Protein: DMT family protein
Amino acid sequence: MRAALTVFFLIISNTFMTLAWYGHLKFKEMAWSKSLGLVSIIAISWGIALFEYIFQVPANKFGFKENGGAFSLMQLKVTQEAISITVFLIFTILFFKTEKIAWNHIVAFCLILLAVFFAFIKK
Structure:
């Protein structure tokens, strides 16, 4: 249960993170944001990133073995990175139609998934 909750919170957290980091790149297409300066965009991104932390911190707290969770610190981080790149790929495909996913991107993604596999091998 704690492992599933951890992964669920990491997915939500990384969705907000991706929106905060890359969502503003689509602002120029929205009428309300055409005149925003960099400071305004940073403030909006920080507001979105707040929700990232609201889910990221509990994910790490619930998921960490020393707090009764299922994951070591390394496993938490590698899992978070795999979720992050997955969310980013979905975001890119859905919102940035001009970006093309090439074979080398797929290979890089597979290597990240391979990193997750290796992080979970028992010593």
